[in-house]
Amino acid sequence: MRKAVRVAVAAGAWTALAGATWFALARLATAVSLRRGAELQRWRWLHELLPLHLRRFLLVTAGVDESVPALRSVLAPARGLVVDVIAHRRAVVSLLRPETVRVIPARPESLPGRPGSVDVVLAVFAAHELRDAAEREALFAEARRLLSADGRMVLIEQHRTVRTLAAFGPGAWQFYPSEEWRRAAALAGLKVVATRQVSPFVTGWALAAG
């Protein structure tokens, strides 16, 4: 009986230690991510992924946030639209006042614009919010339809990896592995032409017709 108690106590101690270690690693990962946050928010690195000639853009968001004005300034003097592909979800509330930026509600299967009318479709932390595979595939297909001959789709996402699982625990399951984006891109006739590791957890991909 005493031996069983000792075993149970030891198991509990190890569980508590593992939990504390996981929590500490998650805090460390968050701190690293925040330190790189300044680089992420400046968005200057984005030029490495953008097409050479940029006149028109479509910025795809999922619940518009404070990064949109900064992104628009980086894309200037190009002109374009900002769309929210999950605006139909009533629970989503924009963090920007309506007068700050004009956002067009859209669905991933029907993005606004004529075929070949934009030079870049930029999806920033938006694609993973589409929880249905058909919606993700539709987003990539619509991006391909809208892109000009030398246009690019630029995807900014966190990917589910061993690193993100260790750092964020169950929260990492909201993200998809990079294979999912390659799959959706391939179905749309897009291929990876450039990448940029922005932080230990955030990657930028440039996709073009292939």
UniProtKB/TrEMBL annotation:
InterPro entries: Methyltransf_11, SAM-dependent_MTases_sf
GO biological process, alphabetically ordered: methylation
Record-annotated Methyltransferase type domain positions: 83-154
Transferase as UniProt keyword: yes
Record keywords, A-Z: Methyltransferase, Transferase
Pfam families: Methyltransf_11
Gene Ontology terms for molecular function: S-adenosylmethionine-dependent methyltransferase activity
Domain of life: Bacteria
Oxidoreductase recorded as keyword: no
Protein name: SAM-dependent methyltransferase
Source organism: Crossiella cryophila
